[in-house]
What we know:
Blueprint: E1 28-37, E2 44-48, H1 60-70, E3 81-87, E4 91-92, E5 95-96, E6 99-105, E7 112-119, E8 122-130, H2 136-145, H3 149-159, H4 165-187
Amino acid sequence: MTDISNLSGTIVPKSDQLNAEQLLSGPMTITVSDVRIGNDEQPIIIEYANDGGRPFKPSKTVRKILIFAWGEDGRAWIGRSMTLYNDQSVRFGGMTVGGIRISHLSHIDREISISLTSTKGKKAQHTIHKLEVVTIDQVLKAIAAAKNKDGMNAAKQLAMQLTDEDEVQRAQLAYSEKIDILKKLSATPKE
């Protein structure tokens, strides 16, 4: 590895699923590509684009939030997005261990606030914000409209919100092509 611009890949645990430790460097937005039934301990398996073979196996609290927000039909979840983060206050077995929680969901009309059991006899409030999903069309339009470095930076910020690998590659190609065009335009002598 020679690129040191993003070292987060060096802390990914060796695990068969998305782990809260992977979110130590910041939240991650995923788009659901498949939902399957798992086992008794982890009854739902959520596949997502760019998962590197590590699906998301949500906790009971997260499953309750997803069913409350998106409904009980897992087929309807496909194509929807969520932002996950590491909540350091999550407890398990009487110990504070940290865990994955949801901060934003697509396909909701407004912010959701739901009170769920956190420990025996105690409830905790969970607030989920509406996730505005960036589409590849929005990114490509921003790249096409960019006329300078500021415009390209704005387009790049939009592109960084894409979660589908094919769309990311399309955006990168369009971005590179537009950079080349802008460089040629700036190098052309003005009469």
